[in-house]
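dumping this here before i forget
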Amino acid sequence: MATFTIDLLTGKVYLFSGDFSGSGSTPTSGSTYPQVNVYADLPPAGTVTAQIYVVRGGSGSYVLNRKPSGFYFSTGTVWRFLGDTPDFFKSDNFQIYDSIDTSKGITFITSGISTSILRKLTVQNSDGTIAYLTDLNTKVDLSVFADFTGNTLPNTYFKLDQSIPQIVSGDAPQFDAVQFNLTGVTTPAEGKLRWNVDESVLEYGLPGGNVNIQLGQEIVIRATNSSGTGLTNGQLVYVNGVQGNRPTIRLARADDNYAHNQLLMLTEDIGNNQSGYVTTFGIIHNLNTAAHSGGTVLYLSLTAGTYTTILPEAPAYAKRVGIVLRQHPTVGEILFNSSPVYKLTDLSDVDGTPLTVSGQIPIWNNTNQYFDFTGNINDYLPISSFNSYSANTFSLIQGKQDTLTEGTGISIVGNVISVTGTTSNNSLQLIDSVGGVNVNNVTGTTIAWTQEFSGTSLNFSGGSRIYIQATGLYEISYVLNVNNDTSSAKNIGTVVRKNGNEDITPMSTSSFSFNTANDISTNVMPSYLVLLSSSNYVELIAFRIGTAGDAFTKKNSSWFKIKKL
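structure:
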């Protein structure tokens, strides 16, 4: 085996043909290798094939151009360093430093590579970066992630709550809970879920960047504007068709026959033939509600797309829109909560006969189980029938009208009634020719009359009311006879009442009948003066102030008289 030695005085390297033998021996023969100061001084490898040279000093600052001192062998093509791998190539010491700032650098660690495996690190051409971010898809085999499961990567790696390990089932991580930052001020964005501090609710952004949905506070759908013009946030619309897989919308109006359809409110501006979001229920934000205080109820207006605080009158639809939550010119809020409203003809148990003539009324069809507007009130009770009182008139109202008896100053000739007297024109005396009305009731009972005398200042059309036609002072008197029909004692009170709500003779009279069946009691009021106005009416009211039981008015035994003074 050849032996090398270095002369410490001259620095020359000697090769010996044999080993040293024994202590203090000297070599028997030797030769020296050619020497150069640094690697760059070596001759071209092709000129000294199979020759060994000694490089006396190291050179180069980086691993890639570092040439240490030592022996170099020419392969005829390149120079190869002879000897052990330098320390700076070992995995625990392979580092590249910045040529200016040596505190910056890269350390290569190979401990993660399998035994007997050599991995290649390929640097692209171009600017020398290992991989372009814009070109990453071509450098990474995405198929390696196709079977990613909890077994591929420990499930403890997927962890939002650092105190509780999460799990991965199939290809989806599962979490026991997700806690959002309750004081965060992040900006909402499309596809981003965040906690809305102002509304205290989770919120996420929709495409377009104009609409943010507060979970549980608003429901929206995406629709296409087919109105022919741009629509703005807060306008009221209804669905008028379909385009593709989306509903189309146009402005709603209270007098539009389609206004009873589902009403919607825009939650963002939508250009013509563009799609955007409309609210079916919930809180609409960023509106001008300066004119309406909080709590104001809103209705669909007669002006297209707008709302009003005034309930529209028929034939317009009285459709409620919602209620104002916040009054403000730019960030006002409305709770939109509208429901369908229908006209009588739109109800499910009404047939479709159109309304084209005045007087149409719904008639129940028991066979078909629906109402239909096939009847007309004028066919049943023509107004012309009242131009003159006749037997035909009496027949039409089926005997409900009291019988009219000719008296002083009254003339009945055929079907014509006229006032003929001059001295009785200001008086009216009525009688009850029927009787049989139970007046022993806690609630007052009106007494119905038959006309006896008539005058120009009074008017009686049957029933209980006497209408005043001229303002002035009137004299009123009456008699009421009541038959006790049961054995208990009765006590009947009477008053004259004006316009159905004012007693002008409070508790004017009362009568008492003993505890005997068929005992008769009488209420009498002498002349009473009272000031009455045109269009007033008066009635005689009877009521119970004693024990219960039946007590009936006597036929032809009661009368009521009123005279204008």
